[in-house]
Amino acid sequence: VSDMVKAADPAIDKELTGKLDTTVAKMEAIKARALAGEAYDQQIAEGNTEGNATVQAAIDALIDQTKSIERAVGSLKLNQIAFEGSDSLDAPDKVFK
Known about the structure:
By secondary structure, the protein is an all-alpha fold. It has six helices and no strands.
């Protein structure tokens, strides 16, 4: 897919590749914490500021890369795509009642 995007728009391919790499790095940080003994549910526990920040950084990277994926789809002249939202991200007040 990268080759097709690169042929259509090299700048978008470079942007998306960079954002995918960033997301992988942020996810690896979550994994590293887990391998060091802090399970995912502990990382997202209330009051775990550092763990919460690590997970939030990965979520933010995923959201950021989504915008570039949409641009890549556009560069390939494909039909528009839509990403389904998440109540926990789009409307957290609905989740934490």
